[in-house]
Design goal:
This protein is an alpha/beta fold. It contains ten helices and 15 strands. The chain has one domain: Metal-dependent hydrolases (TIM Barrel, Alpha-Beta Barrel), CATH 3.20.20. α3 links the parallel β8 and β9.
């Protein structure tokens, strides 16, 4: 029976010496015996779960694809991704679209993959079929998504919808969005925190499990805090960069990267539990689409392979722990996606997915060495704290469904 051992395995919420035994891809025992796979003092965490990844296949596979995305995910310690429903053609707004997505993924997976559905005007009747087919929940845009096949919804059209799985919102309200010029200061001003707040306030009272995507501002954290039934995430780029770091369109994303005060408020939102997870929002595109100026470049940051050392760099500097990291990067995303019965923790009965991490190591970011399809990354040249030693999975990459 295969096993692995370390003096620091995250079991029952604490790092302690342990040997983890697994069989047929499932953990069957945890004890303190010897193992042929002994990782010494390296930290063994549950395989990470990234619930916000744009794979883009089929239809825009020249942007990213299942082979390259899952290979990059696994290299960064992520053993499960949940694919977003847009930027692929067709989008995952119908059962037929989901089947095309699954067909495109077949035979290409280096890690496990689950799928979000999407809701666009006129597609609510597809919700029951997509739920039955195993999507983890539904993404909704309240403003232009950037692609014509995924138009925005009016929240009023969701008030009477019976949706038994989470609703994920790109929460920016159109009435607060302006036009941008070519400079970053103009782009930043065109998407103010007020747009996030207005959208969040619109979601209060929906009879559904509401999740706010990619929170970027102190104002949004404050708007979410009074509503404990509402969950929310942020992303590595908002926790790392400030507007002063932005030099070119490789940093463009929506909502935008804001000031230091907003960045630190996001870390405090994690400390307070208002924000429960950190996910990549990996949204790649061909390098030519990230050139030019901030009015015309595609908005999206590639970081799927880098989430663990990026977040550990900032977390360590602020006194957070590796246990905190495991919650933000594994357990909370697994819970959101309805996969926590098998993902996100090292327990008997859970999948045998592990990332072996050296928290005192170093990762130097060189885009050309990253495994996603295109090398463009806002993290180019950074020296990050911590390094992935190995990523282990007890079973090959599979397609998962929410139960």
């Amino acid at each position: 029976m295969p096993s692995l051992r370390s003096t620091r395995v995250l079991v029952d919420g604490e790092l302690r010496p342990a040997t983890v035994h697994y069989e047929r891809g499932v953990i069957v025992d945890i004890d303190d015996q010897l193992s042929d796979s002994d990782f010494g003092d390296h930290v063994v965490l549950p395989g990470l779960v990234d619930s916000h990844v744009h794979v883009n296949e089929p239809g825009r596979t020249h942007w990213e694809g299942f082979a390259t995305a899952t290979r990059a995910a696994r290299a960064g310690g992520t053993t499960t991704i949940v694919d977003m429903p847009l930027n692929s053609v067709p989008p995952t707004t119908t059962v037929a679209g989901l089947e095309e997505k699954r067909s495109a993924a077949g035979g290409k997976l280096s890690c496990d993959v689950a799928f979000w559905g999407g809701i666009v005007p006129g597609s609510i009747h597809e919700v029951p079929g997509l739920v039955a087919a195993g999507v983890c929940g539904f993404k909704v845009f309240l403003t232009d998504s950037g692609v014509p096949e995924f138009p925005p919804m009016d929240v009023a059209d969701l008030v009477d919808a019976d949706i038994p799985v989470p609703l994920l919102f790109h929460a920016e309200a159109d009435e607060h969005l302006g036009t941008t010029g070519p400079l970053y200061a103009e782009y930043l001003a065109s998407r103010p925190p007020a747009a996030e707040v207005a959208a969040i306030e619109r979601l209060v009272g929906l009879d559904a499990a509401v999740h706010v995507l990619h929170v970027s501002s102190a104002d949004a954290v404050a708007a979410i805090a009074p509503h404990p039934g509402m969950s929310a995430e942020t992303c590595p780029h908002y926790l790392t960069f400030t507007d002063e770091d932005v030099t070119d369109p490789s940093f463009k994303c929506a909502p935008p990267i804001r000031s230091k005060e907003h960045r630190e408020a996001l870390w405090e939102g994690l400390r307070a539990g208002t924000l429960s997870m950190v996910v990549s929002d990996h949204s790649p595109s061909p390098p030519g689409m990230k050139q030019g100026d901030f009015a015309t470049a595609w908005g999206g940051i590639s970081s799927l392979q880098l989430r663990l050392p990026v977040i550990w760099t900032g977390a360590w500097a602020r006194g957070f722990t590796l246990e905190d990291l495991a919650t933000w990067l594994a357990l909370a995303p697994a819970r959101l996606a309805g996969l926590a019965d098998r993902k996100g923790s090292i327990e008997v009965g859970r999948d045998a997915d592990f990332v072996v991490f050296d928290p005192d190591g170093e990762t130097v970011v060189r885009g050309a060495e990253l495994l996603h399809r295109h090398p463009t990354t806002a993290y180019e040249g950074m020296r990050l704290r911590g390094s992935v030693v190995d990523t282990l999975m007890g079973a090959p990459g599979r397609m998962l469904a929410r139960k």
